[in-house]
Amino acid sequence: MSSVDLTEEQYEKHREAGEILAEVRDEAADRVDVGVAHLEVAEWAEERIRELGGEPAFPVNISVDHEAAHATPGVDDDATFGEEMINLDIGVHVDGWLADTAITVDLSGHDELAEASVEALEAAIDVVEAGVHTGEIGAEIESVIDGYGFNPVVNLTGHGLGHWEQHTEPNIPNRGVDTGTELEVGDVVAIEPFATDGTGKVSEGASEEIFALEHERSVRNRQARQALEQITEEFRTLPFATRWLDVDRAEMTLRRLKQQGVVHGYPVLQEEEGRLVSQKEHTVIVTEDGCEVTTRPR
Ligand code: MN
Ligand code: MN
By residue range, what is the domain housing residue 83? Predict the structure, then answer.
């Protein structure tokens, strides 16, 4: 896969999304503290993205302790932060051109676990250039996390970012495997190491708050029709949260749309109960001899 066909204007939109995101990520992280509500941080970040001229590319993910991905506050969610390990994963798009980033805020006193994914990401970014095998990036991640005595989460990966598409080829593994894929100049990819004191394999939990369009088809129910109209116009193929729908009885409406195969859900992905997961992510544009990180503060 290669994104080398993008125009300079399209790369500029990727960069603009990254610049907004860098600011919102760091400000959102500063707001996370014991007693603060998840919903307050998520809604603050999503609103700040819009103020700065972007749109959220997906609901702000707030994963706590053993959760790794796809958790976001529900409608009227009243959960607050405790002395926990919190991962914020945030995305921005400008006209469908994306940036994706994550940071761990550790309130649990496990600095080393948080540090492991930060250092793994830096080591990964150091080897990115045109021609690098994606498996070599994974090997760097695995080696750093191993060095800390933790496991990388191997069934979550980095990914390409497409137009209105959050996950495209190529996958960037979090361990050294032979993928047979090389990065090319102009590829836009998100690299996201996860480190854990658990097994290194996440599985699906019961909770589901994030959805995306699967098949557009006509629906009879009025709320379902309204919701589908909002989804196709505002989110298109990007993920959205139950709480983003401007319809009455959003939860019931989404269950209906899911039953009819119109949308699919993203269950929370988690380690075993009692384990902890840290995550760090940046979006990069691959160059001849390195890369440009779009989600670093300027
Ligand atoms: Mn992400
Ligand atoms: Mn990502």
Answer: 3-202+273-293
